[in-house]
Write a structure and sequence with these properties.
Layout: H1 2-21, E1 36-45, E2 66-67, E3 74-80, E4 86-93, E5 101-107, E6 109-118, E7 124-125, E8 129-131, E9 137-146, E10 151-159, E11 162-168, E12 178-190, E13 196-208, E14 219-225, E15 232-237, E16 244-249, E17 255-261, E18 272-277, E19 284-287
Parallel strand pairs: 1-10, 11-17
Antiparallel strand pairs: 1-2, 1-5, 3-4, 3-6, 6-9, 7-8, 8-12, 9-10, 11-14, 12-13, 12-15, 15-16, 17-18, 18-19
């Protein structure tokens, strides 16, 4: 009986001790590791991604950073911690009054941040891949360190896609109803590194030719491509002309590749390929 009383007395002392210091032995004290700090980014477009059609510049060459609302209507934000775990993510569209202003709250630590933007709703979008068929894509990845104070940074995205222009030099003859174009193959954009990835896409178009374009020379077709690390095959065809197949076409980021030549003169030489750095004046490089 004395042993039972002794054990109960010890339990009572332990319980009183817990109540005295306000701690539970099964729940350690909370610390300050959950404290967060405000993180803000003002997102724009880098000046190197210039000569783009903007509301304010009218497509003229720009030597200053560009307001994101001039060239994009969709913005995605990703944050990964040091363990490569996604800790924050959201998207904006240009209907928001604060479009391009990214605000978050993060604990102290080192993070990897990815921002990407495009003009229009993406064709495909998840936490791995991003596809915006026929649109400009802008991207930036950087390391962010949060210590014990708020962070505010200006972040300028860079164009990751290239453009392909197909220019038909000779006059479109009578009886031409359409011109078809095929590009093998376009690719998605990897969100992790901003580089081309899977899945791949066959880009195929049939452009109707109205009667008012009969006789037109220098007729052009323009499309944006994300496949900037592998060669492309381009096929141009019309029932009133010839079928042109161009292999090993290279499209580079923030650069326009121009294919120009005669489609309807069956005795002409092939098309010419040129590379227009930052979408500026064409420079001829290769003929086809």
């Amino acid at each position: 009986m004395k042993k039972v009383i002794y054990i109960c007395a010890l339990f009572g002392i332990a319980l009183a001790s817990c109540k005295k210091d306000g701690k539970s032995p099964s729940k350690p004290d909370p610390d300050n590791n959950n404290k967060t700090y405000e993180v803000s980014f003002n997102v724009g477009i880098d000046a190197s991604s210039k000569t783009i059609s903007t509301k304010s510049a009218g497509g003229q060459k720009i030597n200053a950073d560009i307001d994101i609302s001039d060239v994009a209507s969709f913005l995605a934000y990703f944050v990964y911690n040091a363990q490569n775990k996604l800790v924050s993510h959201y998207v904006q569209d240009s209907t928001l009054t604060n479009f391009g202003s990214v605000n978050d709250n993060l604990q102290a630590g080192t993070y990897t941040v990815m921002l990407l933007a495009t003009d229009g709703k993406p064709t495909l979008y998840n936490d791995e891949h991003f596809v915006a068929i026929g649109r400009d894509n802008f991207y930036k990845k950087f390391t962010l360190t949060v210590t014990n104070s708020a962070v505010t940074q200006n972040i300028n995205l860079e164009r990751r896609n290239g453009q392909l222009e197909i220019k038909i030099l000779d006059a479109i003859p009578q009886g031409t109803n359409s011109i078809s174009y095929e590009v093998s193959t376009d690719r998605a954009l990897n969100i992790a590194d901003g580089l081309p990835g899977d899945p791949t896409y066959l880009r195929s178009y049939v452009k109707k030719i109205p009667t008012n374009l009969i006789g037109t020379t220098n007729y052009s077709f323009l499309l944006s491509l994300t496949n900037t690390d592998r060669n492309l095959r381009v096929i141009i065809n019309s029932a009133t002309g010839k079928k042109v197949v161009i292999d090993s076409v290279k499209v580079m980021p923030n650069t326009r590749t121009v294919l120009s030549g005669n489609l309807f003169d069956v005795n002409s030489a092939g098309f010419n390929a040129s590379y227009d750095q930052a979408f500026e004046t064409d420079t001829t490089i290769v003929e086809f």
